[in-house]
Amino acid sequence: MGDRFDPWGGMPANRPRPNFEPRKRTPKLDDSPPAEASKQPWTDRSRDADPWEGRRQRPGPPILIDRNVARANIALAITFVLAVCVKAGLFQAAYDFLVPDTSPPVPIREGVQWTTASRTAMNPLTIASPSGNKSFAIKVVEEGPNRQIALLFIGPGRRAETRLDPGVYKLRVATGSIWRGGARLFGRETLCFETAAMQFTVGANGYGGGAVDLADTLAGNLKKTQINKDIF
Coil, strand or helix: which one is 194? Predict the structure, then answer.
């Protein structure tokens, strides 16, 4: 009876065991380890990949904060627009109409209030005002140095006269209904303008003078420029 296969002992005793030699790897020209093996775990990613890809996104701001920011921006824009309108005087007319000027009136006599002209000044200046309810405060200013020479006050439908030295002068006029003092002039209703320069000379015909009709001036027959009352 031949040898039988022994399930507990492996191969039959009369059969030689195979000799399994370890398999030798044939060396290649480039025997370096694969590129994937040299990479670090945290760098196993393409250089062109988004560094934020896969990271946890921060939650957006609450809706309440967005609304507060929007309201703050709207309030800032409204404040800026109102400041520009006030600076431009867009609300001044409405304010004057709704809120009357409560500053007290100041009595003032008509005519020349003061003058710095010399006692020998002979060039006459006559100023007439139109009838109505407007009074006029007039400053005579020397052209060039802007030196104030005289101040006159004229009621409606009146006339005033003063004497000047030879030179070039212009008039700064403030008009209104009620005189409220040198600081406030005619209050919020004050309207100021400046006339063109006038020359007063001395010649063979005597002393040259000037006559100004404020009605013509207000109508535009005499060249004038509106000015701020702070300049008056």
Answer: strand
pLDDT at 137: 95
Query: Which tens digits make up the pLDDT trace of 15-53?
Result: 666 666 666 666 666 556 565 555 555 555 555 555 555
Residues 11 and 83: their CA atoms lie apart, in Å, by 107
What pTM was estimated for this model as a whole? 0.58
- Using CA atoms, how far apart are residues 31 and 71, in angstroms rounded to an integer? 69
Look up residue 107 and give its amino acid: P
Residue 162, Cβ density class (10 Å: 0-12 exposed, 13-18 middle, ≥19 buried): buried
Query: ∠135-164-159 over CA atoms, to 5°?
Result: 30
Alpha-carbon span 137 to 179, nearest angstrom:
9
- Cα separation of 173 and 136, whole Å? 7
Q: Could you report the per-residue pLDDT of 203-216, keeping only the tens digit for each?
A: 888 888 888 988 87
As a whole number of angstroms, the distance between CA 169 and CA 143 comes to 5
Any long-range contacts for 195-198 (C-beta under 8 Å, 24+ apart)? 195/170, 195/171, 195/222, 195/223, 195/224, 196/170, 196/222, 196/223, 196/224, 197/143, 197/168, 197/169, 197/170, 198/168, 198/169, 198/170, 198/171
* CB proximity list for 9: less than 8 A, separation 6 or greater: none
What is the CB neighbour count within 10 angstroms for residue 166? 14
